[in-house]
Design goal:
Helix content is 38%, strand content 19%. The structure holds NADP nicotinamide-adenine-dinucleotide phosphate. The site of NADP nicotinamide-adenine-dinucleotide phosphate has 29 residues, from helix 7 and helix 8.
Length: 471
C-alpha cells in the first residue's frame, strides 16, 4: 500500500503496509468488501482505505480468539514475556516510522507522536516483565483441615476497544497485559486511527505471537459489530477506553453475559493552584496538563481553579506561553499544536469558546466557563477561589473523577487537597501523571479498574481456588 505521495512534505513512498482485518493470523478484506477512508486531519485528504469489518467479521475474530485461547494460556509465561520484549525492541528501533503514522492519521505534532511511541512501547516492556510474576498463593485453612491453593489464570478471550487520541498507546496498554496474562483478544481500534493498531499487530506477529492471539477488526460499524460479541458469551473480558457515554452503554451490554469489565472513560480534571504555589512551576504544569495532545487527552486539565490572589499572574503567564505556541500541521517540524481530530471536534471546541464569551468570559488566548462538559481540546478556562474547602467542593462537583492537579509548596495542604480530591490520580506539582509502571484509572463515572503498574495485569487474570483436605 502506498499512502498518498503528497503527505510527507513531498517525500513519496510506501510508509505502512497493513490495511486489512487481522484474524487468525491472516490479513483479509471485510466480508462485504467495504472499506473506511482514513483521513489526514491536517489536510482532510484520504491517506488510504482500510477494511470496514462486518458483524460476521467480528464473530470470526472472536472465534479465532476462542480457538487460540487454550494453547495460549498454557504457553510458558517466559515465552509470552519474550514475545512482548521483542515487540518492544522492534518499536523502539522504529520510532520515526510509527510517529509519522500517528501524526498522519491523528494529527498530533511529530515530537508528541514520538513521545507516544516510546510511551506505548514501554507498556510492552513493562508487561514483558510482569508476565513472569503472576504469583498465586498456598496455605492451610485456619482450622488446619485443608490445603488451599490459589492460582492466577487468564480470564479468557478479551475484547479491547480503543479511542483515536493515542492510537498506539491505548492499544499497548491493553494488549501488553492481555498477552502477559495469557489471554487472547480482539482489538477494535477507532475508525479515525486504525493504522497504528494494524502496524502493531504486524510487529507482534513478527515477534512470534501465535495466530489468533491478537485479532484486529477495523470497522465503521462499531455498534453492529461489538454488541453481538459482548452478548455472544465467548468474550470473557471487556477493556474499553473512550467516552463515558459509550462506556455506560457497553457496561450494560457486558452485563448480559456478566463479562469482567474495565473502563477508562472521560475526565473533567480540576487544576488547583493555591496561593502559595510556585507559579512558574504551575504554568509549566498547566501547559503539560492542558496542551499535551492538543488538549485531546482524558487527563487534560478541564477546569482551572486559581486562588484569587495569584490569578492575574498565573493567567498572564499561561496566556503568554499559550500564545507563543506554533500551530500547524503535525508533520511540520516546528508545529507544537496540530489540528483537532475532525470537524466535529473543532466545532465542539469553538462552540464552547463562543458560549463562554457570550456569558462574559474574558479571552486571553482562549477560554470557557461551562461546567459538566469534557472539553477535549486546547481551551483553558480559569475560575478563582479564596477558600480551600470551597474549591474542593467545586472541584469534586462533577460526575467524573479521573485525575486532578494541585500546585502548592505547603506539604500539609498538598496532602490534604490530594487526599480530598475525588479522583483516581493526582498530579502534585506535576502536569503529567501517566507512566506505564503506575496504575492509571478513574473513580466515579471516569471508569472501573486500572491499567499499567502492578495492577494492570490483574484485570486480565482470575483467581482459582483449589482446596484439598489434609488427611
Ligand atoms: P468514543 O466515542 O467513546 O469511542 C471510543 C471507541 O468506542 C471507538 O473505538 C468507538 O468507535 C467505539 N464505540 C463507539 N460507540 C460504540 C458502540 N456503540 N459500541 C461499541 N464501540 C463503540 O470516544 P472517542 O471520541 O474515540 O475518544 C474520546 C474519549 O475517550 C474522551 O471522552 C476521553 O476522555 C476518553 N479517553 C479516556 C482515556 C482514559 O484512559 N480514561 C484515555 C483516552 C481517551 P467509533 O468511533 O466507530 O464509534
Amino acid at each position: 500500500m502506498v499512502i498518498v505521495d503528497n503527505l510527507r512534505d513531498g517525500k513519496a513512498g510506501p510508509v505502512f503496509d497493513h490495511k486489512g482485518l487481522f484474524v487468525g493470523g491472516r490479513w483479509g478484506d471485510s466480508s462485504d468488501g467495504s472499506t473506511i477512508p482514513v483521513l489526514n486531519p491536517a489536510t482532510g485528504e484520504t491517506l488510504c482505505e482500510v477494511a470496514d469489518g462486518t458483524t460476521d467479521d467480528g464473530r470470526a475474530a472472536v472465534a479465532a480468539a476462542v480457538a487460540a485461547q487454550r494453547d495460549w494460556a498454557r504457553t510458558p509465561a517466559r515465552r509470552r514475556s519474550e514475545i512482548l520484549y521483542r515487540a518492544y525492541e522492534a518499536i523502539v528501533a522504529d520510532v520515526e516510522r510509527f510517529a509519522e503514522l500517528i501524526t498522519l492519521e491523528m494529527g498530533k505534532p511529530l515530537a508528541e507522536a514520538r513521545g507516544e511511541v516510546r510511551y506505548a512501547a514501554e507498556f510492552l516492556r513493562w508487561f514483558a516483565e510482569e508476565a513472569v510474576r503472576t504469583d498465586g498463593h498456598f496455605g492451610y485453612t485456619p482450622d488446619g483441615g485443608a490445603r488451599a491453593m490459589v492460582l492466577s489464570q487468564p480470564v479468557g478471550p478479551c475484547l479491547l476497544i480503543t479511542p483515536w487520541n493515542f492510537p498506539l498507546a491505548m492499544g499497548t496498554r491493553k494488549i501488553g497485559p492481555a498477552i502477559a496474562a495469557g489471554c487472547t483478544m480482539v482489538l477494535k481500534p477507532a475508525p479515525q486511527t486504525p493504522l497504528a493498531s494494524l502496524e502493531l499487530a504486524a510487529v507482534l506477529a513478527e515477534a512470534g505471537l501465535p495466530d489468533g492471539v491478537l485479532n484486529v477488526v477495523t470497522t465503521n460499524r462499531a455498534a453492529e459489530v461489538v454488541e453481538p460479541m459482548l452478548r455472544g458469551g465467548d468474550i470473557r473480558k471487556l477493556s474499553f477506553t473512550g467516552s463515558t457515554e459509550v462506556g455506560r452503554l457497553l457496561l450494560a451490554q457486558a452485563a448480559s453475559t456478566v463479562v469482567k469489565t474495565s473502563l477508562e472513560l472521560g475526565g473533567n480534571a480540576p487544576f488547583v493552584v493555591l496561593d502559595d504555589a510556585d507559579l512558574d512551576r504551575a504554568v509549566d504544569g498547566a501547559m503539560a496538563a492542558k496542551m499535551r495532545n492538543m488538549g485531546e487527552a482524558c487527563t487534560a486539565a478541564n477546569r482551572f481553579f486559581v486562588h484569587e490572589s495569584v490569578v492575574e499572574d498565573f493567567a498572564g503567564k499561561l496566556a503568554e506561553r499559550m500564545g507563543a505556541l506554533v500551530v500547524g500541521a503535525g508533520m511540520e517540524p516546528d508545529s507544537q499544536v496540530g489540528p483537532m481530530i475532525d470537524a466535529a471536534g473543532l466545532a465542539k471546541v469553538s462552540e464552547l469558546v463562543d458560549d463562554a464569551v457570550s456569558r462574559g468570559a474574558r479571552v486571553l488566548t482562549g477560554g470557557r466557563v461551562i461546567d459538566g462538559t469534557e472539553i477535549f481540546g486546547p481551551v483553558a478556562a480559569i475560575q478563582t477561589f479564596t477558600d480551600t474547602d470551597d474549591v474542593l467542593q467545586r472541584a469534586n462537583d462533577t460526575e467524573w473523577g479521573l485525575v486532578g492537579y494541585v500546585f502548592t509548596q505547603d506539604i500539609d495542604r498538598a496532602f490534604a487537597v490530594s487526599e480530598a480530591l475525588e479522583v483516581g490520580m493526582v498530579g502534585l506539582n506535576a502536569g503529567i501523571v501517566s507512566n506505564p509502571a503506575t496504575p492509571f484509572g478513574g473513580v466515579k463515572q471516569s471508569g472501573l479498574g486500572r491499567e499499567g503498574g502492578r495492577y494492570g495485569i490483574e484485570e486480565f487474570l482470575e483467581q482459582k481456588l483449589i482446596v484439598m483436605p489434609r488427611s
